Amino acid sequence: MTKVYNFNAGPAILPRPVLERAQQELLDYGGRGISVMEMSHRSKEYEAINAEAETRFKRLLKLDESYRVLFIQGGASLQFAMVPLNFLPANGTVDLLMTGSWSEKAKEEAAKIGKVHEAASTETEHYCRIPLPEEIHLSDNPAYVHMTSNETIHGVQWHDWPEVGDRPLVADMSSDILSRPFDATKFDLIYAGAQKNLGPSGVTAVLIRQSWMETAAKTPPTMLRYATYAKNNSLYNTPPSFGVYLLNLVLGWIEDSGGLEGMAQRNERKASAIYAAIDNSGGFYRGHAALDSRSLMNVTFRLPSEALEKQFVTEATAADMIGLAGHRSVGGIRASIYNAMDQEGCEALASFMQEFARHNG
Ligand SMILES: *Cc1c(COP(=O)(O)O)cnc(C)c1O
Question: How far is the CA of 77 from the centre of ligand 1 (A)?
Answer without folding.
Answer: 6
